């Protein structure tokens, strides 16, 4: 079974190479070529590698937040049950209960900040990873432009219609896979200044 799968994969590679070669040859006389950037991101080995690693980092971040989220939920449900039939004045008159409610509110506020920090770190991680991807993509695009003799390369999202003969996405994918099979994806950490800005933004929102 393994040999069959390997053979099938080899045929697929040969077929894809043939399919790629034809549009490039046809596009050589065209001043404009098009590329499906979304396909390059989604189907390239580097793009898939980034997506997988970002998912792993996102899961890790979620696992870090889950214990506190569960603890807050349990504490909130307990407080809600204990104060369900109490007025605000009665809660305020019970010093121990008031102190617990205030501590819960502060804890919930801090958790909200922690979630914002985590989301910002994940976004920064994603930006850094795709920046590496596009840095490697640029020389690939320049190589394809040189090979085709094109003067302009457009993304398919910028075109109303284009012939398959001028679509060089397949060639870009093949070259990109060879140039960048994997991408280093490192979780980005927020600086103290970035954390302070988020805290100030939350305070401003609360005041509005």
TrEMBL record:
Q: Which InterPro entries does the UniProt record give? A: Chaperone_Skp (IPR005632), Skp_dom_sf (IPR024930)
Q: Which GO terms describe its cellular component?
A: cytosol
Keywords assigned:
Signal
List, in alphabetical order, the Gene Ontology terms for molecular function in this entry. unfolded protein binding
Organism's domain of life? Bacteria
Please give the Pfam families that the UniProt record associates with this protein.
OmpH
Biological process terms from the Gene Ontology for this record are: protein stabilization
Signal sequence, renumbered to the chain:
1-21
Q: Which family does this protein fall into? A: Belongs to the Skp family.
Q: What is this protein called?
A: OmpH family outer membrane protein
Tell me what organism the protein belongs to: Henriciella algicola
């Amino acid at each position: 079974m393994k040999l069959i799968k390997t053979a099938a994969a080899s045929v697929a590679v040969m077929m894809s190479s043939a399919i790629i070669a034809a549009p490039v040859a046809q596009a050589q006389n065209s001043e404009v070529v098009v590329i499906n950037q979304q396909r390059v991101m989604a189907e390239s080995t580097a793009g898939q590698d980034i997506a997988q690693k970002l998912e792993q980092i996102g899961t890790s971040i979620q696992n870090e937040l889950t214990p506190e989220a569960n603890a807050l939920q349990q504490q909130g449900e307990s407080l809600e049950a204990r104060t369900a039939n109490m007025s605000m004045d009665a809660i305020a008159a019970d010093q121990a209960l008031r102190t617990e409610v205030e501590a819960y509110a502060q804890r919930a506020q801090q958790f909200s900040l922690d979630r914002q920090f985590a989301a910002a770190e994940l976004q920064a991680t994603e930006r850094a990873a795709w920046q590496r991807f596009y840095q490697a993509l640029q020389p690939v695009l320049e190589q394809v432009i040189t090979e085709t003799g094109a003067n302009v390369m457009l993304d398919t999202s910028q075109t109303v219609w284009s012939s398959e003969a001028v679509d060089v996405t397949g060639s870009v994918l093949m070259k990109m896979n060879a140039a960048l099979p994997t991408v280093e994806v490192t979780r980005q950490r927020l600086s103290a200044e970035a954390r302070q800005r988020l805290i100030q933004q939350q305070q401003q929102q609360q005041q509005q």
